[in-house]
Amino acid sequence: SRGLMFRETLGEDEGMIFAWEADHSGGFWMRNTLVPLSIAFVLADGTILHIEDMEPLTDTPHNPPGPYRYAIEVNQGWYADNGIEVGDTVDVSEVVSS
């Protein structure tokens, strides 16, 4: 429930994954989050559905165009810097949902 809120830094190749047991449709915001982030919404099979940049300390809702199973937050620009785009796949075989 706390996610990356209140962190002042995030390592270059660090992030946080959110996982649900079933498809999820809720959005994310950046309340109390100090680090600019990019978020990837990922389908159950690991396909990236949507990627969006999020600005710190905002309540702007960030919602993907459809249900998803995972959300992965990283430093803003990390996906673009690493050539990762919508339609690419993520290995989610070892992710455990909460």
Any overview of this molecule?
- With 98 residues, this protein is mainly beta.
- The chain has one helix at 78-81, and strands spanning 15-24, 37-42, 48-54, 68-75.
- It has a 4-stranded antiparallel β-sheet with strand order 1-4-2-3, with no helix packed on it.
- The longest helix is centred in the C-terminal third of the chain and has 4 residues, at 78-81.
- It is globular and about 30 Å long.
Using the alpha-carbon principal axes, give the shape: globular
The total of beta strands comes to 4
Radius of gyration: 13 Å
Helical stretch count?
1
- Give the helix level as a range of percent: under 10%
Low-confidence stretches: none
Strand percentage = 25-35%
Separation of the first and last Cα atoms: 11 Å
SS-based structural class? mainly beta
Can you list the strand order of the major beta sheet?
1-4-2-3
- SSE ordering: EEEEH
Q: Describe the sheet with the most strands.
A: 4 strands, antiparallel
Mean pLDDT metric: 94
